[in-house]
Structure formats: C-alpha cells, structure tokens
Amino acid sequence: MDPSAYTAAMQRLKAARYLEFKDGYPMEDNDKNCEIMATDNPSVRIVVATASRPKTIYHYLGCEGFARQQTLIQLENSLDEVFQTARFIK
Q1: So where are the chain's domains?
Q2: What's the half-sphere exposure (Cβ side, CA atoms, 13 Å) at 57?
Q3: β-strands 55-60, 24-25: how paired?
Q4: Whole-model pTM over 0.85
Q5: Are 90 and 64 contacting, i.e. CB atoms less than 8 angstroms apart?
Q6: What's the confidence (pLDDT) of residue 18?
Q7: Hey, which bits of 10-69 come out as E strands?
Q8: What backbone torsions phi and psi does residue 35 show, to the nearest 5 degrees?
C-alpha cells in the first residue's frame, strides 16, 4: 500500500473526530443507543493502532439511530476509498 494512504486515512479519521466515537455500536446485546436493531447484518471494525492512543470502533450495521451515525458511515466509506477495499470484495 502506498504510504500516502496512511496519511490520507489519518486525516479523515481526525476530521471525523474518531476518538469521540464509542468503542462499539452496539456496546452490548441490549444497547439502548440503537433505536433500531436488525439481525443478520454485516459489521465494520476500524482499528487505529497508534502508539499514543490506540482505538477500535466496532459498528454492527444493524444498529441504527445512534448519535453521529451518518458521520461514522461516511468515515467507513471514506476509509474504503482510501484503502481501495472494493478490490477485496466479490
């Protein structure tokens, strides 16, 4: 992967204020932060492994209606673009 991908990803993460996201959506099976919870959906896991402050954000796509949901989805899509993940999906 081109080293510029790391720089671009970190810029997008910081712009989305990624450290302010919870560690998971949902946090547990009966999470009250999900207004809608649908089963049998995929999930997204963003792992930022920096020496100063590592962060993991787990997003089950059946969890909807939480604060900053659209920002998280936009971040996920943006990172997909940076890392060109479509080439790994068939």
Answers
A1: 3-83
A2: 21
A3: parallel
A4: yes
A5: no
A6: 98
A7: 24-25, 36-37, 43-48, 55-60, 63-64
A8: -70, -35
